[in-house]
Design goal:
- This protein is mostly helical and about 210 residues long.
- The chain has two domains: about 50 residues, Arc Repressor Mutant, subunit A; about 140 residues, Tetracycline Repressor, domain 2.
- It has eleven helices and no strands.
Length: about 210
């Protein structure tokens, strides 16, 4: 039974990797489930079993994008020696750098924004749950900063997490819409670092790039 579960997980990951490669290479709209199944070396039924449809694949790819932040939140809970805001600043800078250089991934994120606004009630609900997951991870990170006494007053973990979420969502949205000239690197990363500095108790837990400046 255990091996069967492992095989199912491996098959799911293989399908997901094949779908992401095709979406990034050719675009979400032009790929069919048959092509994804062929690229993954599985049947169309296997794709349906694991993801139901093409949108399910897109949502799964989206979910993997926030895995590093969720892992960071868990590690901060387990290891009190880590510097929460510094670690998040490093992660945000690395994520922005990756997105900035990937036009195909930018198109996928823009598509998700459209689904968030114009999708079916189920799709919009799925996107709402995704945002809740992001806010929950940010809350865990800010609570870790508060526990380590590195969160500047009068910030609370909740107010800091809400402000961080609003700032990140705003930066990503402006970058996707291209209505203003905004690059995630260096401008977006600089905004994040400056804001994290305002959250940090003086002399404590400063993001690496700020300390080196």
């Amino acid at each position: 039974m255990r091996r069967t579960k492992e095989q199912a997980a491996e098959t799911r990951q293989t399908i997901l990797q094949a779908a992401e490669a095709l979406f990034l290479q050719r675009g979400y709209e032009t790929c069919s489930l048959d092509e994804i199944a062929a690229a993954a070396g599985v049947s169309r039924g296997a794709v349906h079993f694991h993801f139901h449809n093409k949108l399910g694949l897109l949502f799964a790819i989206r979910d993997e994008m926030i895995l590093p932040m969720q892992q960071l939140a868990r590690s901060l809970t387990a290891d009190a020696a880590l510097a929460p805001l510094e670690a998040f600043g490093d992660l945000a800078a690395a994520t922005f750098a990756e997105l900035q250089g990937d036009a195909a991934k930018k198109r996928l994120l823009a598509l998700l924004k459209v689904i968030d606004v114009n999708g079916s009630p189920d799709d919009v609900g799925n996107m709402r749950y995704f945002r809740q997951q992001i806010r929950s991870s940010l809350m865990d990170i800010c609570e870790a900063a508060q526990r380590s006494d590195t969160l500047a007053r009068p910030w609370t973990a909740r107010s800091a997490a809400l402000a961080l979420y609003a700032m990140l969502d705003g930066l990503i949205t402006e970058w996707l819409m291209e209505e203003v000239e905004l690059a995630l690197v260096p401008e977006g990363a600089e905004v994040v670092r400056a804001f994290l500095t305002s959250l940090t108790m003086p002399g404590r837990d400063m993001p690496v790039a700020e300390r080196a400046a």
